[in-house]
């Protein structure tokens, strides 16, 4: 889907944050075409659909996405404790007036929703004679509207719910309850699931929404909605979440998806494009003219530690672009893994770097890195010598090892706060081997937004909340069996958990397993917000991530503030009101 199509799609309308009359999409339109003219044929209408996909790429693949969705949780802190994006990573200065990643998403996702509404409302005038094609295009638009609204309502609560296109200045807005948001989200996703084709139908355009995308998102939406309900209504939504997730699992062959045999296969960069485990994908092209911007997907950079310039190491495609680190793991996250039996740790985190350039240890370098005199003169051979190790374990006699070495005691204080201001164990899920210049920012990997493993986790969480602890354990054990180290000793049996463990561990047990499987994948903040009360939210974050102060994170931070600039644009801003606590 090309950027020139996006531009044609938006030129005739005020593509706004729906609460603001001042945000206009100023795009150059060399053909002078308007939506009124372009969208009157099925061929032209595709530009409306293509335009609706655009703004998801401002979140997935850019730094705003992981900062909002992974930062400020129990799993991640800002890399090397830098003061960056404090509003969402530390809850410092998160006010309605402060610029933040959340405010950016508020504006861009409402703009995308307006595009979806425009297409949904205009499709009957688009001249479709092929009703199946019309239903597919409408299914895409309704999937995307639900997708954007899920992010909006979870981040900001019951704000403005619109189903019609905004084409003129509107100076008032009304709030809608969260239940109304979910009524629309669920309705849209059910329509999309009924009318979208399997992903194989789209051929090379495999990142369009498909039946598996809609069903996966519907399971996620039902689970989220359940936590806003009580009593039988809550159980009903949990049951729906469980049933849809199980339906996707049961129909995986029909839907064209499956679990990989191992975590190593799942995160092998060579399996990234059109990954078979993905239910919904945001694709990127090595032809940068086809991407959202010239940097495309930069997820590959956000979680890496510095290795370039260390003895025996230079920047490489294999080890990644280490010049834009944003987030580092908490000690809590690292300790969730028993790396002796769970293969996910070695695949998702890097502890060892083999030399990729020749180096001989000198006295000066040995002194710089706290090494004993015995390492002086040791030569590092590219391709075989260990050059650097950063580990979650304790290592004895570090000074005598002829490589750069930081262990858990160098990285964290005994209370779990971060000690090292230069180094950490990096997450490498998103390493990008499609890049050709190791010193360049752009990455071109696909991004798995929803994947099949999440369906097992949704099913397990719903079963847990329904009191079906054995069923929850069964679903978790599918993923734990896949994750188990198989050689030289098969650890599958050691990885199995029981119904009693699920019941005793409670929701924290579920959250820990989601962390092991999904860390870094744009979901953690939503997980904590969904499952925990305000006080529990604060306690879990500050206990697991003690660099976030209890004086900064508060129970009301389970919602973001409505940007003040949006309220200021309204004639009834005071009536519309700010979210509680701000």
Structure in words:
The protein is 43% helix and 5% strand. It is mostly helical and 582 residues long. The protein has a domain at 1-184 and 532-582: Serine Threonine Protein Phosphatase 5, Tetratricopeptide repeat, CATH 1.25.40.890. The strands form four sheets. A three-stranded mixed beta sheet has the order 4-7-8. α1 (3-10) crosses α3. The longest helix is centred in the N-terminal third of the chain and has 26 residues, at 131-156.
What is the topology?
Elements: H1 3-10, H2 35-38, H3 42-53, H4 64-69, E1 76-78, H5 86-89, H6 101-122, H7 131-156, H8 178-195, H9 211-226, H10 231-250, H11 252-255, H12 263-266, E2 278-282, H13 299-302, E3 327-329, H14 331-335, H15 344-348, E4 352-354, E5 359-360, H16 363-368, E6 379-380, E7 386-390, E8 404-406, H17 408-411, E9 447-451, H18 452-465, H19 469-483, H20 492-495, H21 499-518, H22 524-531, H23 534-544, H24 564-568, H25 573-576
Parallel strand pairs: 7-8
Antiparallel strand pairs: 1-3, 2-9, 4-7, 5-6
Helix pairs in contact: 1-3, 3-6, 3-7, 6-7, 7-8, 7-9, 8-9, 9-10, 9-18, 10-18, 18-19, 18-21, 19-21, 21-22
Query: Low-confidence runs (pLDDT<50, min 5 residues)?
Result: 1-31
Mean pLDDT: 93
CATH class of the domain at 1-184 and 532-582: Mainly Alpha
Order of strands in the sheet with most strands: 4-7-8
Produce a short descriptive summary.
By secondary structure, the protein is mainly alpha-helical. The protein has helices at residues 3-10, 35-38, 42-53, 64-69, 86-89, 101-122, 131-156, 178-195, 211-226, 231-250, 252-255, 263-266, 299-302, 331-335, 344-348, 363-368, 408-411, 452-465, 469-483, 492-495, 499-518, 524-531, 534-544, 564-568, 573-576, and strands at 76-78, 278-282, 327-329, 352-354, 359-360, 379-380, 386-390, 404-406, 447-451.
């Amino acid at each position: 889907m090309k950027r020139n199509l996006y531009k044609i799609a938006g030129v005739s309308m005020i593509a706004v944050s729906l609460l603001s009359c001042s945000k206009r999409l100023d795009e150059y339109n060399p053909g002078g075409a308007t939506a009124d003219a372009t969208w009157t044929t099925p061929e032209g209408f595709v530009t409306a659909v293509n335009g609706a996909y655009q703004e998801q790429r401002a979140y997935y693949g850019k730094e705003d996405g992981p900062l909002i969705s992974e930062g400020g949780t129990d799993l991640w802190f800002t890399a090397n404790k830098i003061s960056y994006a404090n509003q969402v990573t530390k809850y410092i200065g998160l006010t309605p007036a402060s610029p933040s990643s959340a405010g950016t998403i508020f504006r861009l996702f409402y703009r995308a929703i307006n595009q979806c509404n425009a297409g949904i409302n205009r499709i009957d005038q688009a001249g479709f004679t092929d009703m199946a094609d019309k239903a597919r295009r409408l299914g895409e638009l309704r999937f995307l509207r639900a997708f954007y609204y899920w992010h909006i309502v979870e981040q900001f609560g019951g704000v403005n719910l619109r189903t019609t296109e905004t084409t003129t200045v509107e100076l008032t807005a009304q709030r809608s309850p969260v239940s109304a948001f979910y009524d629309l989200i669920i309705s849209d996703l059910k329509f999309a699931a009924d009318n979208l084709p399997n992903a194989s139908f789209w051929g090379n355009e495999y990142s369009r929404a498909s039946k598996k995308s809609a069903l996966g998102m519907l399971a996620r939406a039902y689970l989220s909605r359940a936590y806003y309900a009580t009593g039988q209504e809550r159980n009903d939504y949990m049951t729906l979440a469980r049933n849809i997730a199980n339906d996707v699992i049961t129909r995986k062959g029909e839907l064209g998806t499956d679990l990989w045999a191992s975590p190593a296969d799942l995160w092998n960069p060579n399996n990234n494009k059109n990954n078979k485990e993905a239910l919904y994908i945001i694709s990127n092209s090595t032809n940068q003219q086809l991407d959202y911007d010239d940097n495309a997907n930069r997820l590959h950079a956000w979680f890496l530690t510095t290795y370039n310039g260390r003895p025996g190491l230079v920047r490489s495609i294999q080890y990644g672009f280490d010049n834009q680190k944003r987030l580092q793991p908490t000690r809590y996250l690292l300790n969730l893994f028993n790396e002796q039996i769970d293969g996910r740790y070695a695949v998702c985190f890097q502890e060892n770097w083999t030399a990729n350039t020749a180096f001989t240890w000198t006295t000066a370098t040995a002194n710089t890195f706290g090494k004993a005199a015995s390492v002086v003169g040791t030569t590092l051979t590219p391709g075989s010598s260990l050059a650097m190790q950063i580990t979650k374990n304790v290592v004895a006699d570090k000074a005598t090892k002829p490589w750069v070495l930081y262990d858990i005691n160098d990285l964290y204080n005994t209370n779990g706060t971060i000690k090292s201001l230069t180094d950490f164990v990096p997450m490498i899920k998103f390493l990008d081997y499609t890049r050709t210049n190791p010193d360049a920012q752009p990455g071109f990997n696909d991004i798995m937004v929803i994947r099949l493993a999440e369906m097992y986790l949704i099913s397990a969480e719903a079963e847990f909340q329904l009191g079906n602890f054995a069923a929850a354990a069964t679903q978790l054990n599918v993923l734990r069996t896949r994750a188990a180290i198989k050689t030289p000793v098969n650890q599958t049996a050691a990885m199995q958990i029981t119904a009693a463990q699920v019941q005793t561990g409670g929701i924290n047990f579920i959250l820990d397993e989601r962390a092991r499987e999904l860390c870094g994948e744009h979901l953690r903040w939503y997980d904590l917000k969904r499952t925990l009360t305000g006080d529990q939210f604060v306690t879990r974050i500050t206990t697991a991530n003690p660099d976030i102060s209890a004086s900064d994170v508060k129970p009301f931070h389970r919602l973001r503030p409505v940007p003040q600039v949006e309220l200021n644009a309204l004639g009834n801003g005071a009536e519309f009101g700010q979210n509680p606590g701000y």
